[in-house]
Amino acid sequence: MTTIIANNKVSEFVSSIANENLPCWEKFSESRKKAKEILTQLDFPTTRNEYWKYSRVTKIARETYHFKNLSEEKIDLDEVRIPDLETYEIVFINGFISLVNSNLPSSDELEIVAFSDSKSHDYDSCFSKNLDSITNIFSALNTAYFTDGVLIKAKGEFAKPIHIIHYSTGENIISQPRNMFVSTTNSSLTILKSSINNNTNKFFQNSVNEFFLEKNSKLNFYVIQDYKKGMNVMTTNVVNQERDSVFSAYNYTIKGDWIRNNTNVFVNGKNCETNLFGAYQPTGSEHIDNHTIVDHLAAHCESNEHYKGTIADKATGVFNGKVFVRKDSQKINAFQSNNNVLLSDEATMNSKPELEIYADDVKCSHGSTSGQLDDEAVFYLQSRGLSKKSATALLIGAFLGEVVEKIEIPELKEKVLELYGME
User: Fold this and answer.
1) Of 367, 365, 368, whose CA–CA distance to 349 is shortest?
2) How far apart are CA 267 and CA 323, in angstroms?
3) Residue 58: which of 127, 7, 111, 5 has the closest Cα?
4) I need a labelling partner for 49 at 20 to 30 A (CA). Which of 26, 75, 82, 176 fits?
5) DSSP readout, 229-252?
6) How many C-beta atoms lie closer than 10 Å to residue 112's C-beta?
7) The three-state (H, E, C) secondary structure of 353-403, written as one string
């Protein structure tokens, strides 16, 4: 059993990891070495750090974790399969690829290679590109000690979605999957990611996904986060776009004790389109945090960002979105919006949309609203025979539905509506 002893310092958190107990692939050895060196210079962030102002990591840092490889066990995946939607499946159990549960395609239009595959592949040109492991302890932790991963490369118009399923089980387990998605020139790829957790307690999943969109390519990334109790989830997505590419991310959070989603997009080429959509509805004492960065490094591009949430009980929501428009990035259209409804007096929402513009020929806007349900609208629906609970649910459905409607796959849209109670 490999153990990580958590304390207030990162060096103590990782001090007892035995490298021989994790896969050690030579092709990643240099990246791992650099990340380990970085970890010796970092500490866990506090709320004094602006990037972590509203998300405490104490509950993660104070625990003791270990890795647990159950990749050879057969599991039931029906819980997360989308009815009537045909997909290929890549399954991770506690961060380790489980080939016995996966259903991989055989196609000239798509290449799928597990990091543990013995074949030699050139990852150096893209692995950890633009990943903020210099300042982000969790990115560095994943790079230094990721458990397994997969490279998915689209070489043409590949229509059928690739469904990545993370299965988590156990107490005080740390899971660190790492994936790379590449859309080559003139190709398209759709990735769907969802999760199952059973019998989890103080489970920490720290995943990193890297995306590379070459010229005139398209990549859609759908994420459904619906966790039972006992899960703390940190997800970091890093996107690199070349000219004429389209990247669209759809993140739908239904439940989760503590979730932090980081999405950083680097728009490196002209005529790109970037879309980030999200919906969340924390209840109880749940904490859901969405952090996004869209960095416009080239001219003639467009980005659209819209996140909506309902926060109930004593739950907390966080949205911090930042758009950069660099000096020579003229003719940029960038729109950012965050809207929230507080369903109780004890619910909390922290919203901070930001623009940082260094060009003068741009159209950029950002905004945030947080309020309560319209009592008159609730009363009107009750006067038409609905109970207060049904009236409230209908209004919430209409509010979140605007973002759910962005889903381009009908079967998936129906599933998400069902999970939000809007079917």
Assistant:
1) 368
2) 11
3) 7
4) 176
5) SSEEEEEEEEEEE-TT-EEEEEEE
6) 17
7) EEEEECCCCEEEEEEEEEECCCHHHHHHHHHCCCCHHHHHHHHHHHHHHHH
The C-alpha R_g of the chain, in whole angstroms, comes to 21
CA angle 360, 319, 227 (to 5 degrees): 145
Task: Indicate the pLDDT class of residue 2, thresholds 50, 70 and 90.
Answer: very low
Q: Are strands 96-97 and 362-371 parallel, antiparallel or unpaired?
A: unpaired
Note whether 103 and 77 are within 8 A (CB): no
pLDDT for 1 equals 46
**pLDDT single digits (tens) 92-120:** 999 999 999 999 887 888 988 888 764 54
Q: Which pTM was predicted?
A: 0.94
- Calpha distance 399→309 (Å, rounded): 8
Q: Give CA separation, 150 vs 22, 181, 189, in Å.
A: 16, 8, 15
Q: Which two tokens stand for residue 44?
A: 């866990």
Query: Which has the closest alpha carbon to 237: 278, 203, 287, 196?
Result: 278
In whole angstroms, give the CA distance from residue 413 to residue 4.
Answer: 39
CB-based contact 395:373 (threshold 8 Å): yes
- What CA–CA distance (Å, rounded) separates 3 from 64? 7
Distance CA 377, CA 388 (A): 11
Per-residue model confidence (pLDDT) at position 222? 98
Crossing angle for the helix pair 29-39 and 137-145, nearest 10 degrees?
Answer: 140
Measured CA to CA, the distance from residue 372 to residue 374 in angstroms comes to 6
Distances, alpha carbon 313 to alpha carbons 22, 233, 301, 307, 336, in Å: 41, 21, 40, 20, 27
